[in-house]
Design brief:
This protein is mostly helical and 407 residues long. The protein has two domains: 257 residues, no CATH class; 94 residues, no CATH class. Helices cover 64% and strands 4% of the residues. It has a two-stranded antiparallel sheet. The protein starts with a helix and ends with a helix.
Length: 407
């Protein structure tokens, strides 16, 4: 059990690192090409079919880039595809979802006070949300393509708000935020896999066959690419939010998530406008700042966190309570950890339990046995800087307590 717990934690770390690496690659290329597209300039003498061009300087050299809105007259000898960044980001993200939220469903996914379901049912609901989000989005885009782009964006936002509210009635607050981000990321990656790349392959096949490509495929792909561009920043916020219970663990968490999407759109609008050389809309930063202040206010009204901070001893946790080491471990945790990890922390500067973890009762300590073992037993991550002076003997006791249970 010792080897498995440590291996599982390192596996989660490795997959998280992979997810960050691939995410940087995908977001970087996406932002670059949107900026490039917006910065294209038209001039007399461009090759036939060329929409615009851009000169750039980087790495000690100059780049001359031309874009063909539909396709060049004939297929170039070498063509670079940008797709694996997206696929690898989604696959590593789903692996993280499985490792953390599916394997740890009783702790991170299911809140009996919200929806009391079994682990398999909770996982099925999660998978249905991922698939359902894409299906609804794709149907709406196909229905309204070229008809009402602004109306489509507004409708999609209304649906996102509903999803934010609905997810908080299915999962823990932390899992609700993560799933809202995962659903959005699934839409983005599916845009690449199901629409953008297939459309580009159709154009390439037409070129090879000597046919004139239909411009509709490029139009559809550009719409989906634009959506991806505006959805990126909210997804990043939602993925990072699991470290901040003031975002996911408060009464108005679904409103906070809804406002985050507006903030992300405003920030991208600023950069997109600058890249297109259409002005300097600094007002977007002011509005974003106001929305962020509103979010801060929402996170503290009321100042008592909701069911996210409530814990109850499960059947598995009773094994830890029954251990002969538990009374000493309980006293150690209450003495070294509960000044911060409590419903009402007393440590100066701490107003809410870090990451929503409350350790001020026997049931709560038993429920978080694995985290205590890894954070304060096998490593010295907790307490931070050992501010409460936990001893080596106390850490050894935590290790012995966890390992003897065989959980």
């Amino acid at each position: 059990m010792l080897d498995f717990a440590i291996f599982w934690d390192w596996l989660a770390f490795a997959v998280r690192w992979l997810h960050v690496i691939t995410g940087i690659a995908w977001i970087g290329s996406s932002f670059y090409f949107v900026a490039l597209d917006l910065g294209l300039r038209q001039r007399p003498g461009l090759p036939e079919g060329a929409f615009g061009e851009e000169w750039q300087v980087h790495g000690g050299g100059f780049y001359h880039i031309q874009k063909y809105l539909v396709a060049p007259a004939e297929m170039p000898e070498h063509l670079t595809w940008f797709k694996w960044e997206s696929y690898a980001t989604w696959m590593s993200g789903f692996a993280m979802l499985a490792i953390v939220y599916y394997a740890g469903a009783n702790l991170f996914l299911i809140d009996p006070a919200v929806l009391d379901v079994s682990v398999p049912v909770a996982i099925l609901i999660s998978l249905a949300c991922l698939a359902g989000g894409w299906i609804v989005y794709d149907l709406l885009c196909r229905w309204l393509i070229g008809k009402a782009d602004t109306g489509l964006m507004i409708l999609l936002y209304v649906i996102l708000v509903f999803m934010a509210w609905g997810l908080t009635h299915l999962f823990t607050g932390r899992a609700a935020f993560l799933h809202l981000g995962a659903i959005t990321a699934t839409i983005m990656s599916a845009n690449v896999f199901m629409v953008i790349i297939p459309n580009q392959k159709i154009v390439v096949a037409d070129l090879i066959a000597g046919r004139k490509p239909d411009p509709k495929y490029g139009k559809i792909a550009k719409q989906r690419s634009l959506h991806n561009n505006y959805l990126t920043l909210p997804v990043l916020f939602l993925m990072l939010s699991n470290h901040y219970p003031l975002a996911f663990g408060t009464e108005f968490n679904w409103v906070i998530a809804s406002l985050v999407f507006l903030m992300g759109v405003l920030i991208r609008h600023y950069f997109n406008t600058r890249h297109a050389r259409k002005g300097n809309p600094t007002w977007t930063w002011l509005v974003t700042g106001i929305l962020f202040i509103v979010i801060i206010w929402l996170s503290t009204v009321p100042k008592v966190l909701t069911g996210e901070l409530k814990t109850a001893a499960s059947a598995a946790a009773q094994v830890y309570v029954a251990s002969a080491h538990f009374p000493a471990v309980r006293d150690t945790v209450l003495g070294r950890c509960s000044m911060c990890h409590a419903a009402e922390p007393v440590y100066e500067g701490i107003y809410h339990a870090p990451k929503g973890v409350v350790l001020d009762s026997e049931a709560a300590i038993a429920e978080h046995a694995r985290e205590i073992y890894l954070q304060a037993g096998r490593s010295h991550a907790m307490p931070p800087a050992n501010v409460t002076h936990i001893t080596d003997a106390e850490r050894a006791l935590i290790v012995a307590w966890f390992e003897e249970t065989g959980q």
